Amino acid sequence: MVVAEVTHPLLAESAATDASPPPESLVSELTRLAFTTDSVPTRSHLLYYQLRRMLGQERLTACLSGIQYLARSEDAAGARLLAAFLDANTPSSLLLPKVSRFSSTRRVMARLAAGAKPDAFLKNWQQRLAETVASGEKFVPPIPRTKTRPVPPDAEGPYPLLRSLLRHLVPNTDLDEPDPQRAALLASVLRIEVDAYQERISQLAGMIDPFRVAAIARVLPLLARADNALRDLRRLIGWIEEGNFSAAFARSVPRYHDALDEAERQRFTEALNSSPDLCDLAELHANLEAKPMPVPELAGRMARLMALGHQLVAAGKRETELDLVTAALLAQQYDADGEFVMPLTPDLAEIVAAVLLAPSNGRGLGSWSLEGLEVTAEGLVLRRPQLGLGDRIWRHDLPTADESDPQAIEDTEAEDTEGEDQDEEAARNITTVAFKKMVLNNIDSTTVVLGFLRNPKVVAIPGLVAAVAVRTRSSLALETIASDRTLYTGFANKGVPLACLQSPMNIPVKRLRKFIHVKYVDRCELKRIVKDRARYRREVVDEVKKYLGSLT
Q1: Which of 32, 145, 448, 544 could serve as a FRET partner for 154 with CA atoms 20 to 30 Å apart?
Q2: DSSP alpha helices (H): ranges in 179-261?
Q3: Sheet holding 379-382, edge to edge
Q4: What pLDDT, in 10s, does the model give residues 87-118?
């Protein structure tokens, strides 16, 4: 039996299964997207917002193949798109910019100052805001006011103090033993803005005319992204309250999580894995999910691997240069707790050691630094301190073969210009059945559901609120339905009381007790509840028993 010789990954030639070039129109479109902005986070958002629109279409596979082709071709657009595809950062870096200006807090307070009547949620929010400001004044000295220039709206009231608190309390490094008092105050500051953000989004959802297709088509994606951001922000707050500062401020997460929700991410992964030609891009994506790495750190590893590959070509050990996709795969696969460690065979270790000792020469790849690489008993090692910090900044974010000299550029953060399709669709009526289906399809989005429950046109659709009460797993949505009389009375909502009793969510029985009455639920149905214990919570069954006993 003949055993095939295994080639070391450092010497393996790239298996370019995507050799056929994509259509010229697609290349032009991808190139235009790649050069839209120099900000990697903004470009990453734009890329994934575009790919999200293609979910379920063949065009998605074509675009991903185009990105992979351009990256293998050492094209500048390919480097920019691959950097956007692989961008990752810590949760705090992704989420704190959403709350740093406290714009939602300012707008909610402005609405209350204009005479809006606060409900129980807003009264509680105002009380928590006052308590947080009082606690924060002990940590941050008061900010002096200047009388020489006009004071902008966001420089009045508690906003400067909240922004100073945020800057003061957010740690610069991963803390092993965070101060519980500071962590609690930081969580309180963040929760103030997050709750105000949810209030604003719910107000927006409640103002939409649910029977205008154009309005729904434009706003629903915005509401879904806002709901995802709120969910992630609450998770960040939970980490801070638990004292898990490593998860909040040190551990990186893929930036595409900010553009795609969990269901969309699953569909995107399935599309990547469905095409054999995208196997390398799918592997990059899987590695990104398992061990996300900031682009500057990834670029530092890739550049050294590509420079080493160039020297191995010159030594006759390789036939072709390492392309961006292969270099990125190697940089990800041999990550060992933040360090790059690649095992080497004894023969290859001698060759690599000789290459590392030889002076660099030539232009392009031949002039790139191999600093930080060394051959040890573990193999080829690149230590963490050599990555990212003090490293060169690449013109196109990832190393490309046409760069022979370090290119220092400012990494300016462009404003997030989310590419939303603004084409107006002709307004037309939508059937009640279709609209009910659309609401139930968004049942997992608490913000969207709360917004729709505020809309009288939605509440007037027969059976819709009852369907929401049965299907939602949001305690906040259920408590809203159970506490608002307009949501459980009238012909359209006659099934809501029974639906609330059927819900498996653990909402207090005292909130449901008023529904256990023949005024809301038929007596025969109440008797059926006692017999059908499998569909109802035990506490609800016990309350129904007591009520029926009082009738006899």
Answers
A1: 448
A2: 180-207, 213-242, 245-249
A3: 335-336, 339-342, 379-382, 373-376
A4: 987 777 767 877 888 889 998 998 888 888 88
